[in-house]
Amino acid sequence: MIESVAVFGLLAGALGAASTLPYLRDTLRRATVPHRGSWLIWGVIEVVALESQRADGARWSLVPLASQALGTCLVFALAVRFGSGGVSRTDLALIGLAGVGVAGWLAADEPVIATSCVIAADFVAALMMLPKTWRQPGSETLATYVFASLGGAATVGAVGVLSVPLLIYPVYFILVNAGLAGVIVYRTGYLQRHRGVAAGPVRHDAGEPRRMLEARL
């Protein structure tokens, strides 16, 4: 049993790294445009989730969480310069709402409630990037969300026991990343069929005024 959970943990860690590397590459190439607010929230709450799972007794399932948290923080660092969003009133309100979820984790003594607060904050971040992804699916890296969903599945195997506090976050991770991947695939196909053009990445020059970039995204 110990060997199997170790294998799943290492596999999930590898998938976590595999999910982030294409996104980092595409962001540096200016092919992907990360949403600053989303990746800020994800960076914070993945660190929180890592600590939450450690406190709940997780072992090998911490490997993919640590890998994912590191990659997410690197993406956010790039998003500060190359990303979009995160500064509008709506974005700031949603960031504040996500902050409430993080505060709920810190205040809750019950593991299920604490992890649920983290999931709620994570979901807010997904909602923040959804309008941009719907309009410009090419501004996101599909492989990132596919590998992240598979990593969530491997994390379930790494838990090794039937524990709701340890399983609800990786199960949620499978679903939310599969959902985002589905949006990218659906919208890319829709735009190609109905507009006759590829839903390619949003590119912009470094000197372009921010208001023009925000209007396009």
What does this structure look like?
The chain is globular, with a radius of gyration of 17 Å. It has eight helices and no strands. Helix 3 packs antiparallel against helix 6 and helix 4 runs antiparallel to helix 5. The chain is an all-alpha fold and 217 residues long. The chain has one domain.
TL;DR?
It is built from eight helices and no strands. By secondary structure, it is mainly alpha-helical.
Layout of SSEs?
Blueprint lengths: L1 H27 L7 H20 L6 H21 L6 H19 L3 H25 L6 H18 L4 H32 L14 H7 L1
Helix pairs in contact: 1-3, 1-6, 2-3, 2-4, 2-5, 3-6, 4-5, 5-7, 6-7
Described by its quaternary structure, the protein is single chain
> What is the radius of gyration computed over CA atoms, rounded to a whole number of angstroms?
17 Å
Which bin fits the share of residues in helices? Answer: over 70%
Could you give the count of β-strands? 0
| Low-confidence spans | 202-217
Q: What order do the helices and strands follow?
A: HHHHHHHH
Mean pLDDT: 80
Strand content: under 5%
